[in-house]
Structures are given as structure tokens and as C-alpha cells.
Design goal:
single chain, 698 residues, alpha/beta, 2-enoyl-CoA Hydratase, Chain A, domain 1, Rossmann fold, N-(1-d-carboxylethyl)-l-norvaline Dehydrogenase, domain 2, 8-stranded mixed beta sheet, 6-stranded mixed beta sheet, 29 helices, 48% helix, globular
């Protein structure tokens, strides 16, 4: 059955596209559209053409599964060019989310009408490519340089109200029936004897002038640091800038060349891996039979950084929230933090004062744990101490309804042990939010031995409501993210004790594309957190494990990072960003002498190799133990929770791109230095011997 249908109403041709589930512009859609355009070129009776989609959304973007493949068929750019040159007026009747190629088709039409809830955008940059069907040339002609570049460099979805303001669409109609909307507009334009006005001829906002050059420079400066390692943003800027000096036909050819260059880029492969990996996280066994419980009322225990963040994440999703703290002073402090966060959103224009009041009307701060008796789900966010958490769950066991889901926001602790104090442990689950919880998208969902499928389904449903990216994890110390982080930090401290500079390591990791270096992260989170973990694990540390005491010496001085004004770096009102703490090198040298280490130098590549090797080493063990279901889940955790560069696709994907044989060889060499820490996992050896990659395990 054809995905493109044609209907005729007098002198109007209606082209309806229906390619479920998302109306992607697949090869089949492109073939049918091209045939339609060819027929219309020769049809003199037709005065107007309406392109619409009767179901979920107007045309969405390209079918990204086709990227990088040799597809024998028409390209969208050629279809758009021919569509634009038709001698009858072509109307795009938009609704839903016409993104990427969908918006490019709409912009090659002569008139665009939309429903009020329509959102448009060119998000190709998020996949490591650029608009390839005229988007870099038509959008600036409709909307001007500044808004066009901002849209293309961020991938932002623009609401219909903003789109009409900037000339991207021509009319908004309240009626939800987009087919009738298109016909209505077509009849009006025919009656007014309107003539087709091709977008490529509209140059009033696309002028090669001094003002345009200034606009481009401002945009470049604004996005300089954000996009310094990325290929596709530079290609977008290049296409727009060079297009100013070329004819439209030349500019389109130039855009196609830059699009092809992006397709060949490893960054495109990494970003698309990230895209599909984030959609694969919901493919877990528990969701096949699990049924989500209805959640309306949420309880949060603890009003610290995590408790306030979790409360705001719940409030933002429309839930009723009761927060419990131990005394009125703590409640007031938490409420002040929550109020100031929303007040800042009001001042920045992100929400209105009415929105703030509406959100906060769903919040109560109380001191009596019994106030949680009516809650559907309770999230404990108290101090990271097993005895403290168990005590809370014992009380909840007697206070709450039997069907109330009980969740612990633990970062490391054993959820099985917490669940054991509850009469019906099948309702206990780990929900590891990342700080700040109202902003960070990652949510590790920790499934304990007795957690029911329904409880898991409820947790995944909650994540969806909160717009989080959920990743299923089994129970172990640190789960997926923090377990790998712990291993990586040990390897990093080994490098430092062996002679590597803390500040060089941070620089190299940033240059690799990570948001921050490891010691910046420690200073941001607070060095005392890792110190507490090291002390907690001290009794179980094997006598033969190599233990570096440098971070302990730093913490013993009370240097916990940003919150104390001093850590590995210095902080203060007049202190420049990333100013090293000059006393750190002295501590390192003293500790090297005490440990009898002969200091050696590390080049940048050696630092990166150890970084990747340590992540992969623990990642493979996590896969062997089935803590993570697949390598791509580990990638999702590290991209969304630990600042790993999205365009590299995550540590496991990056290891694939390096070649697992090289990673294995590095680990084998490190194993000669320290056979306990670098003991090579069997799974990695097996994959290399069978010439397989982590992708094969996805």
C-alpha cells in the first residue's frame, strides 16, 4: 500500500503522507513524492497543491537508519527544488513536529499553515549532520540569519507562535483538521489570485551585508566554546556563510557536499549511536509483563541537595509532593532553596509568576513521617549511610499502604539489604538521581532481587513523566555509573602517584571532549563524598590492592572543593576559573616519596589510553555480571551522567571505534604493572578472539 495518497477537489490536489510510526521521509516516501511532483509539473488544470498528513504529525525528518548507506533513489534536496518551482501554489499544512526534512519540505512550499501546537526545527546538528535538503539556505531567507543559525546550532524546536513571528510559517489555524485547513487556505489563495512565491527568491532577510557579517560573528562567538570539538556546527556556519556569496543552485550543491562530509564523519556515527542507545533503554525484560501503578502523590524524605532536586523534578511533572525533614529549620532551608530556584526561572522568563505559584501549590514541607501515609511513591534521599536508610524504611513499612512504591536514592548502597527490612520487598527499588536532580536527565533504576515487574514498570513510567532517561541496573556497589567511576578514579590516582600532573589530566580529558576533568568533578561534588566512600570500604580493601593516599591528604586539610573555597583548584569571587591550588603539587611529591615511587612523565595519549581502558575494564565486568543488560546502556549512563562526549557515542562505543584489539593490548600491558587492578576480563578476550565488538552485544 502506498504511503503517499492523492486526492483531487476541483482544481486542488491533496497529497497525504502516512508513513507510521513517525512519518519519516523514507525512500518509499521520497519516490512517491517525486512521482507526484513530476505529474503536477505537467498538469495544467491544478491551481493549488496541499501537502499534509492526516495522522500523528506532518512529515518528520529523514529515516536515520538510511544514513551512511548507499540508497538507490531520489534525494530529498532534488524533490524540494522541483516542488518549489511548480507553477501552482503549494501549501504545507503543518501539525505535530515537522522537524529536519519535514520542515525542509515545508519551506520549499510557497505557503505554510499550522495548528497552534505545532513545533518546527532543524535538529540535524544533534545527529552530527547538517540540513541536507536546502535547510541552511531556505530558513535564513524566511527567518533571517540570527534566528536560523541559533535554531540549526542548537536543534531547538520552535513553537508555532515563534515560527509565525519570524516568518517561518504564514498562518495559524485553530482547527485540528490539517487536511481541511490546507484545503481552506488553498481555496482562499486561489480566490485571491495569489501567485507562487518561491522561497529561494526571497532575499530580503538574506543579504551579504556588513550587518549580516556582524550577526554571524556574534553567533560564532556565542557558540564557540560549546561547539569547539564538533564538526557539524562548523559545517552549518560554513554553508550559511558561503551561501551568501553563491547563487541558490550553487549554495544547494555546496550544502550537499558539506552534508556528505558530515555523513562520513565519525562524530555522526557516535551521535547516531547515542540517539538509538537512548531509545533502547526501555527494552528490558520487566516491561514485557510489568504494569505501571498510577502515581499522583509523591513523598520525598530529605531536604538536602538531592531531596530538593528530586522534589522539583516531581513538581515540574505535575505531581503532588510532600517533603519530610527532621525539623522546621531544615524545612525552611529546603523551601527557600526550592523557591529561589523557581524565582530564578521567573526572572529568566522560563516560567511565569503564575506558573511558579501553580507548581508550588503542590508542595508541602513537613516534619512528621506519618504525613506520607497517603503517598503512592516515596523516595528516600537521606544521608548515604546504610543504618540510616534502613531505619527510614522500617518506619515506612509501618506507615505506608502496602501498594506504595518505596525507592531509595542511594548512589552506592545495596538495595537488597535495604529491601530486607520491608515486609513486602517486591515494592522496593533504587532510583539513583543525578545532581542537580531537577536538571540532570539520567536516572539509574536499580532492580533488586525481589523487585516486582510492576514496580520496575512504575519506575520507568515515573522517569518518562519526569522527562528522564532511565537505565536499568542490577545491584552492586555503585551500580553502573559510580562503579565505573570508582575504578576510573583509582586508575587516575595511580597515574598521579606515578608522576602525572593532576592539572594535565584534567586538561587532556577536557580536550578529549568531556565536560570536565575528574578533579574538577571532585571539587564540584565535594571531595568529602569520595573520602567517606573510601573510609566505608577500607575494611574490605585487600592488603595487596594499591592504595593512593593523595586524595586523603587533600581532604584531611579540609579542602573539599567549591564548597570550602579550596580543593584541587582555588575558588572565590576574584579567583580566575581553573586556578590550580599551588599546594597540591607539594602533596603529590611528598606522597610519591613516601610510597617510594620513581616519578615518570605521561604524554596526552597515555592519559587517554588509561582513561578509556579503565572505563572499559569495569564496563566489561559489569556486562559479565549482568549488572547492565548491554554495552549501549553503559554508554547512555556515561553520556548523560558523567559528561562523556556525546559525539563519541560513550566509552564502549568509543572502544569499538578504537578497535577492541588495541584496548585489549593496552590492558594486557597495564596488567604486567599491576595484575590485581588490571586483570583482564574473559569477555573482552573472547570478543577480540571472535573478531566481535560491543555493538554485537547490543
Amino acid at each position: 500500500m502506498s504511503v503517499v495518497k492523492f486526492k483531487y477537489e476541483d482544481d486542488i490536489c491533496l497529497i497525504e503522507v502516512n508513513n507510521p510510526p513517525v512519518n519519516a521521509i523514507s525512500l518509499e516516501v521520497r519516490k512517491d513524492l517525486l512521482n507526484a511532483v513530476i505529474d503536477l509539473e505537467n498538469d495544467k488544470k491544478i491551481k493549488a497543491v496541499v501537502i499534509c498528513a492526516p495522522n500523528r504529525t506532518f512529515l518528520a525528518g529523514a529515516d536515520i537508519r538510511e544514513f551512511g548507506k548507499n540508497i538507490d533513489g531520489p534525494i530529498l534536496s532534488d524533490i524540494c527544488n522541483r516542488l518549489e518551482k511548480l507553477d501552482k501554489i503549494v501549501i504545507a499544512s503543518l501539525h505535530g513536529t515537522p522537524l529536519g526534512g519535514g520542515l525542509e519540505v515545508a519551506m520549499s512550499c510557497h505557503y505554510r499553515v499550522a495548528t497552534p501546537d505545532t513545533k518546527v526545527g532543524l535538529p540535524e546538528v544533534l545527529l552530527g549532520i547538517i540540513p541536507g535538503a536546502g535547510g541552511t539556505q531556505r530558513l535564513p531567507r524566511l527567518a533571517g540569519i540570527s534566528i536560523s543559525l541559533e535554531m540549526m546550532l542548537t536543534g531547538r524546536h520552535v513553537p508555532a507562535s515563534e515560527a509565525i513571528e519570524n516568518g517561518i510559517i504564514d498562518e495559524i489555524i485553530d482547527d485540528k483538521d490539517t487536511v481541511l485547513n490546507g484545503i481552506k487556505v488553498a481555496k482562499k489563495l486561489i480566490a485571491n489570485k495569489s501567485k507562487p512565491v518561491a522561497t529561494y527568491l526571497r532575499n530580503e532577510k538574506f543579504i551579504n551585508s556588513e550587518e549580516t557579517k556582524i550577526s554571524i560573528k556574534k553567533i560564532k562567538d556565542k557558540f564557540k566554546s560549546k561547539h569547539k570539538n564538533l564538526f557539524s556546527p562548523q559545517a552549518i556556519l560554513q554553508s550559511v556563510e558561503e551561501g551568501l556569496k553563491l547563487t541558490f543552485e550553487q549554495a544547494i550543491k555546496n550544502e550537499r557536499k558539506l552534508f556528505s562530509d558530515c555523513i562520513k564523519s565519525p562524530q555522526r556515527e557516535g551521535l547516531i549511536h547515542s540517539f538509538f542507545s537512548e531509545r533502547a533503554v526501555n527494552k528490558i525484560p520487566e516491561l514485557k509483563n510489568g504494569k505501571s501503578k498510577s502515581i499522583n502523590k509523591i513523598g520525598v524524605i530529605g531536604g538536602g541537595t538531592m531531596g530538593t532536586g528530586i522534589s522539583m523534578a516531581a513538581l515540574n511533572s505535575g505531581f503532588s509532593v510532600v517533603m519530610i525533614e527532621q525539623d522546621e529549620q531544615s524545612i525552611n532551608k529546603a523551601q527557600e532553596k526550592i523557591n529561589s530556584t523557581y524565582e530564578r526561572s521567573v526572572s529568566l522568563g522560563r516560567i511565569s509568576a503564575n506558573d511558579k505559584q501553580r507548581i508550588l501549590s503542590n508542595f508541602k514541607g513537613l516534619t512528621d513521617l506519618n504525613s506520607l501515609s497517603d503517598r503512592d511513591l516515596i523516595i528516600e534521599a537521606v544521608f548515604e549511610e546504610m543504618d540510616v536508610k534502613k531505619e527510614v524504611f522500617k518506619k515506612l513499612n509501618t506507615i505506608c499502604k502496602n501498594e506504595t512504591v518505596l525507592a531509595s536514592n542511594t548512589s552506592y548502597l545495596n538495595v537488597n539489604e535495604i529491601a530486607d527490612v520491608v515486609t513486602n520487598p517486591e515494592r522496593v527499588i533504587g532510583l539513583h538521581f543525578f545532581s542537580p536532580a531537577n536538571i540532570m536527565k539520567l536516572l539509574e533504576i536499580v532492580v533488586a532481587e525481589k523487585t516486582s515487574n510492576d514496580t520496575v514498570a512504575t519506575a520507568f513510567s515515573l522517569a518518562k513523566s519526569m522527562k528522564k532517561i532511565p537505565v536499568r541496573s542490577g545491584v552492586c556497589d555503585g551500580f553502573i555509573g559510580n562503579r565505573i567511576l570508582s575504578k576510573y578514579l583509582v586508575a587516575t590516582y595511580h597515574m598521579v602517584e606515578d608522576g602525572a600532573s593532576i592539572f594535565d589530566i584534567d586538561r587532556v580529558i577536557r580536550d578529549f571532549g568531556c565536560a570536565m576533568g575528574p578533579f574538577q568533578v571532585i571539587d564540584l561534588a565535594g571531595g568529602d563524598i569520595g573520602w567517606a566512600t573510601r573510609k566505608r570500604k577500607a575494611h574490605s580493601r585487600h592488603k595487596d590492592d594499591r592504595y593512593v593516599e593523595i586524595p586523603d591528604r587533600v581532604c584531611e586539610k579540609g579542602w573539599f572543593g567549591q564548597k570550602t573555597g579550596k580543593g584541587y583548584y582555588l575558588y572565590g569571587k576574584d579567583v580566575p576559573f581553573l586556578t590550580p591550588n599551588p599546594e597540591i603539587d607539594q602533596i603529590c611529591n611528598e606522597e610519591r616519596k613516601r610510597a617510594g615511587i620513581n616519578q615518570k612523565e605521561f604524554n596526552d595519549q597515555e592519559i587517554i589510553d588509561k582513561y578509556i581502558s579503565s572505563l572499559v575494564l569495569e564496563g566489561v565486568k559489569i556486562l559479565e555480571e549482568k549488572i547492565s543488560l548491554r554495552p549501549s546502556d553503559i554508554d547512555v549512563v556515561y553520556i548523560n551522567g558523567y559528561g562523556f562526549p556525546r559525539w563519541r557515542g560513550g566509552p564502549m562505543n568509543y572502544a569499538d571505534s578504537m578497535g577492541l584489539d588495541k584496548v585489549l593490548n593496552n590492558i594486557k600491558n597495564y596488567e604486567k604493572e599491576d595484575s590485581r587492578f588490571w586483570k583482564c576480563p574473559d569477555l573482552l578476550t573472547k570478543l577480540v578472539s571472535e573478531n566481535k565488538s560491543f555493538k554485537d552485544l547490543n
